[in-house]
């Protein structure tokens, strides 16, 4: 039964008094607040556009996985690159997460590429740049297209507050890097970006031992995914190097990311997933092929960000396309693992936001907070005719304050019914 109008008005001061007594529980809502704050800033970023699907997923706290596009623009030949990118997005969805493929289109960073845009980016090679972190100002200012490397994708992932990213393999210290100082920006960005990267380790064309040492220096946690600590070498399931740790399930991997973010650590972590056994190439076989490819790159004067695409193409030729098939298999497997990790992480975040009532009692009258606005009318009436003189107005006004918002009144009634007033 609805209360009389005047009685409903009378409930407003009581409601305001109750709201003033509510205290913010920062320990329960710090993660949600950080996400909302970060997403709010992100949506106003001048150079970034986010798709409707990804925007809604972020707002609702659904699991999201970011995907790089350098593998699409520079890592694989067409049409394998496009087919793989489309299939990877499908795999992420099949495993319960929302894919957020990141690319640059005409100087705009796009988060959540649709199929048509992804196909165009992977087909049109002219004026498409392999965009590392350092390249962003040029590519954006010149309104160019770009495939984002791990470093750039990490940067954008941090901006949108997505904690899980999937790639084939991260960059690292190049062979001979102790003299050339050719070290991928991926490693530096991992050292200052709290995002979990799911990959098949470091590309085997690199110096894996020195890369792991550099990651340690950067404070990046590395964990192999599986029963052993064997660190994978992209095409091969083992590299001869060991990770400091290993996790056996996606739930355990999600726990690492969960703690990393909630402890406010500044560095990221690497979840190293071995390529499926049926698609793996023996390490000794790949090592001989890679040595020849790296030697050819040096003789040809290939330097900088052109080295990786060149060596990968040489390896593909030497293996008659077998390495390309392995590359496709490992990125698809990583997408499945990464999506499962994102789903488990979302569950852990949800549990953290739920009130902890274990071992205690539930309050009969839980605190209630209403977020929003209410319309308050200030009504001024003149009780008698007034006279206007040159310097003043003479009047006897009657002033009343009333609630002008029906919704606010309904809230008062509902709280009264719940025993909150």
UniProtKB/TrEMBL annotation:
InterPro entries: Indigdn_synthA-like, PsuG
GO terms for cellular component: cytoplasm
UniProt KW keywords: Glycosidase, Hydrolase, Lyase, Manganese, Metal-binding
Gene3D superfamilies noted in UniProt: Indigoidine synthase domain
The protein, known as: Pseudouridine-5'-phosphate glycosidase-like
Molecular function (Gene Ontology), one example: pseudouridylate synthase activity
Pfam families per record: Indigoidine_A
């Amino acid at each position: 039964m609805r209360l009389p109008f005047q009685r409903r008005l009378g409930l407003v001061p009581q409601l305001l008094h109750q709201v003033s007594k509510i205290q913010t529980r920062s320990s329960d809502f710090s993660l949600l607040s950080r996400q909302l704050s970060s997403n709010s800033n992100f949506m106003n970023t001048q150079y970034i556009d986010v798709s409707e699907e990804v925007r809604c997923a972020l707002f609702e706290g659904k699991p999201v996985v970011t995907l790089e596009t350098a593998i699409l623009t520079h890592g694989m030949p067409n049409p394998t690159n496009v087919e793989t990118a489309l299939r990877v997005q499908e795999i992420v969805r099949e495993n319960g997460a929302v894919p957020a493929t990141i690319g640059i289109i005409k100087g705009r960073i796009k988060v959540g590429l649709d199929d048509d845009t992804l196909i165009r980016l992977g087909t049109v090679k002219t004026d498409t740049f392999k965009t590392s972190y350092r390249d962003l100002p040029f590519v954006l200012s010149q309104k160019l297209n770009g495939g984002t490397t791990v470093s750039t994708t990490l940067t954008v992932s941090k901006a949108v507050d997505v904690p899980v990213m999937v790639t084939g393999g991260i960059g690292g210290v190049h062979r001979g890097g102790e003299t050339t100082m050719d070290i991928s920006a991926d490693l530096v960005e991992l050292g200052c970006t709290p995002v979990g990267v799911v990959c098949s380790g470091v590309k085997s064309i690199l110096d894996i031992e020195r890369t792991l040492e550099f990651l340690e220096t950067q404070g990046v946690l590395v964990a192999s995914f599986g029963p052993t600590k064997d660190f994978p070498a992209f095409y091969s399931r083992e590299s001869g190097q060991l990770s400091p740790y290993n996790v056996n399930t996606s739930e355990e991997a999600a726990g690492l990311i969960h703690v990393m973010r909630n402890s406010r650590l500044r560095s990221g972590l690497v979840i190293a997933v071995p390529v499926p056994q049926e698609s793996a190439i023996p390490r000794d076989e790949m090592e001989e092929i890679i040595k020849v490819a790296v030697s050819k790159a040096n003789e040809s004067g290939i330097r900088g960000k052109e080295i990786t695409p060149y060596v990968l193409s040489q390896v593909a030729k030497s293996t008659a396309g077998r390495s390309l098939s392995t590359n496709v298999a490992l990125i698809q497997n990583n997408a499945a693992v990464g999506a499962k990790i994102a789903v488990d992480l979302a569950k852990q975040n949800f549990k953290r936001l739920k009130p902890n009532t274990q071992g205690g009692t539930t309050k009969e009258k839980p605190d209630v907070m209403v977020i929003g606005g209410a319309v308050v009318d200030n009504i001024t009436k003149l009780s008698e005719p007034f006279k206007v003189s040159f310097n003043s107005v003479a009047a006897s006004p009657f002033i009343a304050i009333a609630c002008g918002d029906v919704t606010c009144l309904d809230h008062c009634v509902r709280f009264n019914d719940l025993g909150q007033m």
